[in-house]
Design goal:
Oligomer: single chain
Number of strands: 0
Structural class: mainly alpha
Distance between the termini: 28 Å
Helix content: over 70%
């Protein structure tokens, strides 16, 4: 799964207000891009990083539900 698909699915499941969605989208996307950039420096592919993201944060559905719960 690529970055945009992952982030889109997370936010679809999080069901946030538009202002919150914009902020969370930027934060999540930037965090993943930073992880990909760091991975490239040590020889890890974007695909491998996205697998690590899913392992660390859960599926997009799981992360979206956690964000929704945290936002109340």
């Amino acid at each position: 799964m690529n970055i945009e698909a992952y982030v889109n699915k997370v936010l679809e499941c999080a069901d946030l207000a538009p202002s919150d969605e914009k902020r969370v989208r930027a934060e999540l996307r930037n965090h993943i891009l930073e992880m990909i950039d760091n991975g490239k420096h040590i020889g890890i592919s974007e695909t491998e990083v996205m697998q690590m993201v899913t392992k660390e944060f859960g599926t997009p559905e799981e992360l979206g539900k956690m964000i929704a719960k945290a936002k109340g």
